[in-house]
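In practice, a research group might receive sequence data for several interacting partners and want a quick structural hypothesis before committing to experiments. The following worked case mirrors that situation: the sequences arrive first, and a predicted assembly follows.
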Amino acid sequence: MIKATTYHPLSIEDAIEVARSLEGFFTPDTELQCEEIGDGNLNLVFRIQAIHATEDLNKSIIIKQALPYAKVVGESWPLTIDRARIESEALLLQGKLVPHLVPQVYLFHADMAMTVMEDLSDHVIMRQGLIAGTQYPLFAEHISEFLAHTLFYTSDLGMNQQLKKRQVEQFINPELCKITEDLIFDDPFTNSSNNNIDTAILDEHAALCSDQALQFEVMLLRQKFLSQAQALLHGDLHTGSIFITPQSTKVIDPEFAYYGPMGFDIGAVIGNLLLNAAGQQFWIQDEMKREHYREYLLTTIRDIWNLFDVKFRSLWNQHGVDRLSKVAGYQDHYLLEVLRDTAGYSGCKMIRRIVGLAHVADIDTIADPATKERAQRIALSIGKALVTANRSITSIDEFIDVAYQAFKGVHVS
Ligand code: SR1
Ligand code: MG
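A structural hypothesis for the assembly, expressed as tokens:
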């Protein structure tokens, strides 16, 4: 058993010691190897595996530890380590609702802000898989199930409304929400020193800063993010928070979890698929193959929404606990609002990944400057169109058409 201790960042040796002390996992005296594999913006991630021991040979674990600052910026940006508690509690809750879609948590240690969990190294980070042009035929089925179940069963539709208020309290996450509020809804539309903008698209940023109509829509989306405790969100559901194979999907990293609008999570997934579509300008040189892959991405987006819609309605009809939610027309109204929020948040998330602090590899690692610029302009065009249309969209087909027309408007092959 791991003892109580004062917080300190884990060394490789510490991580091995933690792994050894996990009861019933590795056999005593097994030789263990550890590497720090964290490539995200905030945390340390250690992978510990057994070597040279027949009975333990394929055994491995992950230890994730929150640092008391944002790794992407450094110690000048202090950050609560309570996010590790939020993450482990969200994983445990999601593990009850959709156990096959999240990693198993073996242990959470509050003092050390660390979670010991299942190693998913047989999966790849979805963002890398998409950059490589891989198709994941089961992804829409899996992620729509994750979204429908986690969002429905943590909302006033699917759980006791008094207990839900306690759960809102459990997942109050002010510091991580503040990151989102700044990086998504504020910085991209101002001259913030947090921003990271390529010189080639400074004109695009100037346009974002002066576009009052766009900023008005962003304000409405921000208002919902600040005040609508609709469901327990993952809070940062981009394609770097998904481990995947063609057969399996695992959602990781819910440290931004809090009670917010459902469309924020669905929009994160869809916005990141669209960012990849924008980046494919570089990754797939052959035009026919590129068009085919973009079609695959758009079909996946359509499937995600349609499957989510079917699953969410089915949960509502079969397991809804709110007697009043059966009022005629309410379900259609509710889901239309979620779709519209999804469009708006997809757009916000695309814009922030082009001009804000933290970018995405799908576009940022494009080696050719001209192609990168085109991809950035495509992403901004789609992002702005989705934000602009968020309150009028009536179907997923219209959503996709808005994105497609914005893409075509940038005049690229
Ligand atoms: C300072 S953290 C920057 C970004 O990384 C996380 O993955 C979130 O998306 C956050 O906005
Ligand atoms: Mg993360």
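Before designing any experiment, note the following. The first helix runs from residue 12 to 21. The chain is about 50% helix and 15% strand.
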